[in-house]
Amino acid sequence: MGLVVLAIHAHPDDIEFCCAGTLILLKDAGCELHYMTVARGDVGSMEFNRRKAARVREKEARNAASFIGAMFHPAITRDIEVFYTIDQIRKVLAVIREVAPDMMLVPSPEDYMEDHMNASRLAVSAAFCRAIPNVKSRPRRAPVSREVVVYHAMPHGLKDGMRRQPVPDFYVDITEVMERKEKMLSMHESQKAWLDKTQGMESYLASMRETSAAVGKMSGSFRYAEGWRRHNNLGFSVKETDPLREILTEYVQ
Q: What three-state secondary structure class fits 4?
């Protein structure tokens, strides 16, 4: 069995947009995958009330996780209520201690909306606290000393809130798994009407392909790609290591 990989993002379908291609390649390389969104996706509907929307979107997320053989971890809060609080840090910390990942794939620290940025901060802070006995998780889980490497995905729309475009440290070629990434995203059927009406995406599948193609163009080498930035190793690993690049060497630029 390969390394343990935990993807933590803000909402159901964020993982599919930002990092599903990389996750599929890691699964193919023998890694153990874990899938978590911090929020339930309960406001992302023009049709359902919050309670039903949360049920529908959790089912879709579970199906998507199952499609790539990832273990699903339930959300901890509601949409627009992803806040950088000790209570939410403790809940994310419980998942990290339970999974004990070698690698985490998390949102960009700069993005167009607060839920995404706060999910990034929660994941980073919880990972930092994973081995600290005096920081209690909720529910209680024993501290874990395993080193972890944290990678940040590109922001949605590839720009931050001030319209600036982050530059990845490296790119992963997802061309050969693009069909599986699209299939995974298509399992979030409830999002088509929502994204069409609220964010002008027309087709969320086409928008995902366009974004992946834009990152591929940035790479200068790939048709479709996902871009990654590696978090500072201090507090996470004794030495700088780069397991994502090492495992996916043949796909990295």
A: strand
Q: What are phi and psi of 203, to 5 degrees?
A: -125, 120
- What is the pTM for the complete model shown? 0.95
Closest CA to 171 of 209, 205, 214, 234: 214
**pLDDT, tens digit, for every residue of 49-104?**
999 999 999 999 999 999 999 999 999 999 999 999 999 999 999 999 999 999 99
Residues whose CB is less than 8 angstroms from the CB of residue 192 and which lie 6 or more positions away in sequence, other chains included: 203, 204
Q: Which amino acid is at 153?
A: A
Parallel/antiparallel/unpaired status of strands 149-153 and 103-106: parallel
Residue 201 near residue 44 (C-beta atoms within 8 A): no
Residue 18 has, within 13 A of its CA and on its CB side, a CA count of 30
Burial group, residue 50, by CB count within 10 angstroms (0-12, 13-18, 19+): middle
Residue 245 token pair = 């690049």
- Residue at 154: amino acid letter: M
Q: Please give the Cα distance from 192 to 198 (Å, whole number).
A: 10
Q: Element (H or E) spanning 211, and its range?
A: helix 204-219
Overall fold of domain 4-251: Rossmann fold (3.40.50)
Tokens of 49: 């009330």
Burial class (CB in 10 A: 0-12, 13-18, 19+), 229: middle
- Model pLDDT for residues 205-215, shown as the tens digit of each residue: 888 999 999 99
